[in-house]
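Troubleshooting log. The previous structure file for this entry was overwritten by mistake, so regenerating from the original sequence record. Sequence copied from the archived sheet and checked twice against the printout by T.R.
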Amino acid sequence: MAIATQACGSSLSAGIEVAMDMQVEATEDLAMWIESAARYFIARQLCGWNPPPGSGVLEEKEEEEEESQLSNAIEELKATNLDLTRRCESLEESFNKEKSEKQIAVESYLKENQERESAESSRDVLTVDLERVTHDAKRFSEQVSQQEAIRVKEELRKEVECLRVELKQVRDDRDHSVIQLNSLNIELGNYKEKIGKTSKECESFRKKVSDLEETCNTQQEQIRIFQKQLAVATKKLKLADVTAIEAMTGYEEQKEKIKYLEERLAQAECQIVEGDELRKKLHNTILELKGNIRVFCRVWPLLQFDGDSNGPEGASISIPTSVESAGRGIDLISQGQKLSFSYDKVFYHDASQEDVFVEILQLVQSALDGYKVCIFAYGQTRSGKTYTMMGKPGIDQKGNI
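Regenerated output below.
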């Protein structure tokens, strides 16, 4: 009976060790894929990698390969679970007649459950951290400034480093749990060799395998959640990269446009200055050609109080009919003698203030250009000097100064 009990205990211990090894393998595979996804996300954040034109197909292929690998891992985990279930059923059929169970094994199992719950709590914390990283990536996508983008990337890098440390801690806890589980298996084997009762132990291990199966399903669900979160974070990172590139491109275009407009403005200002200098020079040259000293004559119309032009003196004014003297000469007939006078310009009695101003307008422009100009009126009393220079109230009778 002792030999049979020892053989059954050894077989059960071997089955449990195989189940534990496969569970450890499944857990390590899960950790490996989580670490791979985190490293990929860190590399994208740290390098600020922007896919070159035409690399979208390569990225899609890489994502499809990663999804295929994750799917294969999930299928392997499912196969492992199925194998564990079959082994559990085999163990249950082999030890369905045994009745007792060791209280120490139950307490060890409860302790293992607590450690597993602690590991699951750590994974929940990692999930929350990953959601926070996703939120930070979303905030990063809303930033346009390049300096802000660099700062956010640095924060994301630090958070991913923290996640990596936490993941390492979880893996260390898992390894510690595996060591404790191996120790428990040794103690369980020793106990079975002493008491030879394994029926309740089989039930306990059946529950344990069921829990492992549930844990595996939970891990599969977490893997799917991580895949979705990683896809969302990757998409947001791409949008952030595209937004940053567009912002920088628009900034460079505006900068080039402003530079071009400033150059055009400087050229236009230089042309304006050169043109103004040339205009002043040509204008002054024209005035010099006309004469630096010019004499104009304005004929005052006779009024009623001026008396008769055929008075005692018998003086009269006439306009020359020759083409050469037109607008520049005047004839004075006094006591039968005709006197002819020639000026640079003659304003007859019908000339207005505006006609006089048009003639001296070029001199006014020369004064505005900085040249020295002197205009004065000369003549006897009541000859119209004040009227010509100062004018009278009214639009048509304004003065020339």
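The helical segments are 2-47, 56-94, 103-141, 146-195, 199-290, 353-368, 385-390. Archived copy saved in two places this time.
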